[in-house]
Specification:
- The protein is of the alpha+beta class.
- It has 5 domains: 73 residues, Arc Repressor Mutant, subunit A (Orthogonal Bundle), CATH 1.10.10; 64 residues, Beta Barrel (OB fold (Dihydrolipoamide Acetyltransferase, E2P)), CATH 2.40.50.140; 67 residues, OB fold (Dihydrolipoamide Acetyltransferase, E2P) (Beta Barrel), CATH 2.40.50.700; 225 residues, no CATH class; 82 residues, Beta Barrel (OB fold (Dihydrolipoamide Acetyltransferase, E2P)).
- Helices cover 30% and strands 28% of the residues.
- The chain contains 16 helices and 33 strands.
- Strands 5-4-3-6-7 form a 5-stranded antiparallel β-sheet. Strands 10-9-8-11-12 form a 5-stranded antiparallel β-sheet, covered by helices on one side.
- The termini are far apart.
């Protein structure tokens, strides 16, 4: 009779709530840092555990928390492991952790996590790194410009897994040159990992070996996109270069397919019926996703303005597949001839889009506006309505200027004039800019680049949207509900000082003392409008301002002169707007929209906005370079749009394209760069080149891969 093997009793594991585990890990992390900072020497893992009594106290939860905390401290660079395997506090050895920013010239910078000054990394140090990696560095001196310089202690985290670029072959060796010029290392491709890829093609490679001090990175061809000049290739490259999500998940697509084709009767519960109100949409000629519709009527001496915004939050619920994809994208990305939407087309161009003559769900901001443009009352509510017409900016302005518009449009125009009056009284800054658009032929080749001037219809819709956004900001801030504000902080003191120094040279002064208000900027803009150097002065004023961001901390919007401002009017294409809708709905139901890390979401949405802008700009620059290849050798008039230590950027009048006149092309002289005066000054000749100067130039070279257009002064301008 065989003996039955005795089974060991199963150990019952106690599940600990995540918040409790996280709190224990945080406490453990503080204890680890304290122990390492107090220690006179590096501690081994055993010594660290013994010092904190990890084995004997607290059981499994504390051991797990210790391991999690130590791993997190290593990843963030606050704790460093030396070659002997012992641990040190980064502070004790002057080690700084942060993210790497590469430069096309081979060097790079570490952007510290603690917000301190960037650390210069010379090219030899960057051989073991790529743009976007995380690393810890030790300050080792200063660079020639006096900035802190460092050396790599440890690579903490790699960011690049797949890289897009163009394949080349030299001496029988295949390699990929990354499209992102901040990655200056070529990726070697072994023959066995090349597949069917050929030199000259665009491909993405998957890294199978990261760079080190003595070896280049090695990759495997993961995807061949085609030839460099294939139609639409510039967008395919940008999608991968900027890591833009461009394919919806299967769950998200399935959720979109399951959506109804039309608004259903069940959707109308607790909604006001505004289907008898003649709302209209006013957008550009090529628009397909319509977020907003407007209607205005006279109300005594003032007006009643209703702004209906697509109720995306009715269909996209927190945490569902559609929401996950929308949050990851953060925003729709607009390229010439192609859009990467935040939501699947079934919603963005269909069920959520405020198309004419169909029922649509909306969140409405219903405002009473006085004759002087002040919003005296507002109300938010859910509604169902039906747009009566899909109008365009060009068509609306044509009918308004001719006097052939209907009563509703005339009233909307009167509302705009009242709001514009209030804008002027408020002191909002209003810069004059020229937008351009590319006109393509049937094969996708640019025929021409033309200005797309803003007319009063653009401004009409803009003021209506601003009014609704401000009401949404006031509604949420007055009820102290957390939300992402659209914040435009006050200019930095050093920027104000530089601006004042520049203006003083030409006999101008920025009012407002040490802390100028928006109305002070508006005042000087009005004062200089008739000057021949208006464009120069406006550009310098604009560059003194900060970039707007999303954050739960409300510090107001400097440029628009608003105390509390949010984005409410574009939930089809911006994730922050969707969050604002959810917060407003929650308050209307006497609830709160919670469960979010608002700081983290704000950072993410600001980053995705910048990513989208960078990708769009990159594609436009490539297309412009491709277009200008046929114009090499031509002589053109232009205006200086940028002055740097290495030369001048000049925009060509007829093409709205920027090129570089390198400093070496300006003549036989030493040119001194004076940044506060935005000027290059010749020491021998006294020749001055300043922002907004007129210049005649010759186009001598176009480089598609680097997106560079090289210019030289036309004959007679060099001395």
């Amino acid at each position: 009779m065989s003996k039955k093997k005795r089974e060991k009793p199963t150990r019952q594991r106690t599940l600990v709530p995540a918040p409790v585990a996280a709190q224990v890990a945080d406490t453990c992390g503080e204890e680890i840092l304290g122990a390492l900072e107090r220690a006179g020497a590096p501690l081994t893992l055993a010594e660290l555990r013994a010092g904190l009594s990890i084995q004997g106290r607290g059981g499994e939860l504390r051991r797990t928390a210790f391991n999690d905390a130590l791993g997190a401290l290593e990843r963030t660079g606050r704790v460093v492991k030396n070659r002997a395997g012992s641990f040190l506090a980064a502070k004790r050895i002057d080690v700084i952790a942060g993210r790497i920013e590469g430069h096309r010239d081979g060097h790079g910078f570490l952007v510290p996590d603690d917000g301190s000054a960037q650390v210069f990394l010379p090219a030899p140090e960057m051989r073991q790194l790529m743009h976007g990696d995380r690393a810890s560095v030790r300050i080792s001196g200063q660079d020639p410009r006096g900035r802190p310089a460092g050396s790599i202690v440890e690579v903490l985290e790699r960011s690049n897994r797949r890289i897009v670029g163009r394949l080349h072959k030299e001496h029988g060796v295949l390699f990929l040159v990354p499209e992102d010029r901040r990655i200056t290392l070529d990726i070697l491709i072994p023959p066995a990992d090349a597949g069917s890829a050929k030199p000259g093609q665009v491909a993405t490679v998957e890294l199978i070996a990261q760079p080190s001090k003595h070896a280049q990175p090695i990759g495997r061809v993961a995807e061949v996109l085609g030839n460099y000049t294939d139609p639409g290739m510039e967008i395919e490259i940008a999608l991968r270069k900027f890591d833009l999500p461009n394919e919806f998940s299967k769950k998200s697509l399935a959720a979109a397919r399951a959506m109804p084709e039309e608004v259903r009767a069940d959707d109308l519960k607790d909604r006001r019926d505004l289907r008898d109100v003649p709302f209209v949409t006013i957008d550009g000629e090529t628009a397909k996703d319509f977020d907003d519709a407007v209607h205005a009527l006279r109300d005594g001496k003032g007006f009643r303005l209703r702004v209906a915004i697509a109720d995306v939050s009715h269909y996209v619920r927190p945490g569902d597949a559609l929401d996950v994809d929308a949050r990851e994208r953060g925003t729709s990305v607009y390229f010439p001839r192609r859009v990467i939407p935040m939501l699947p087309e079934k919603l963005s161009n269909g069920l959520c889009s405020l198309n004419p003559n169909v029922d649509r769900l909306a969140m409405v901001c219903d405002m009473a506006i006085a004759a002087d443009g002040e919003v005296t009352r507002y109300e938010f509510y859910a509604a169902v309505f039906r747009s009566r017409a899909r109008l365009t900016y060009t068509g609306v302005w044509d009918s308004l200027s001719r006097g052939t518009s209907n009563t509703e449009l005339k009233t909307l125009y009167d509302v705009y004039k009242a709001l514009a009056q209030e804008r002027s009284r408020r002191g909002a800054i209003d810069f004059e800019t020229v937008e351009t658009k590319m006109v393509f032929d049937d094969k996708g080749k640019i025929l021409r680049i033309v200005p797309e001037p803003r007319n009063e219809a653009h401004r009409l819709i803009e003021e209506c949207m601003l009014a609704a956004n401000v009401c949404a900001g006031d509604f949420l801030s007055s009820r102290k509900h957390p939300v992402l504000y659209r914040v435009h902080d006050v200019p930095a003191p050093e920027k104000i000082t530089a601006l004042r120094d520049f203006l003083a040279e030409i006999g101008l002064a920025l009012p407002g003392g040490e802390k100028p208000a928006p109305k002070d900027y508006a005042q000087i803009l009005e004062k200089i409008k008739s000057r021949p150097d208006f464009l120069l002065l406006q550009t310098i004023l604009l560059r003194s301002l900060k970039q707007a961001v999303y954050t739960p901390e409300n510090v107001g919007h400097f440029g628009l002169a608003f105390d509390a401002y949010v984005h409410f009017t574009s939930p089809i294409r911006r994730y922050p707007d969707l969050l604002v809708h959810r917060a407003i709905k929650a308050l209307l139901a006497n609830q709160k929209y919670s469960g979010l890390d608002w700081d983290e979401v704000g950072r993410h949405c600001s980053e995705t906005e910048r990513r989208a802008d960078d990708a769009s700009r990159d594609v436009e620059n490539w297309l412009k370079c491709y277009y200008m290849q046929d114009h090499v050798g031509g002589i053109y008039e232009g205006r200086v749009t940028g002055v740097t230590s290495f030369g001048l950027f000049v925009m060509l009048d007829d093409y709205f394209v920027d090129g570089l006149v390198h400093i070496s092309e300006l003549g036989r002289d030493y040119f001194r760069f004076e940044p506060t005066r935005h000027m290059l000054l010749g020491e021998r000749t006294g020749k001055r080149y300043r922002l907004a100067d007129r210049l005649k130039v010759k186009l001598v070279r176009v480089d598609l891969e680097t997106r560079k257009i090289d210019l030289v002064p036309a004959d007679g301008q060099r001395k």
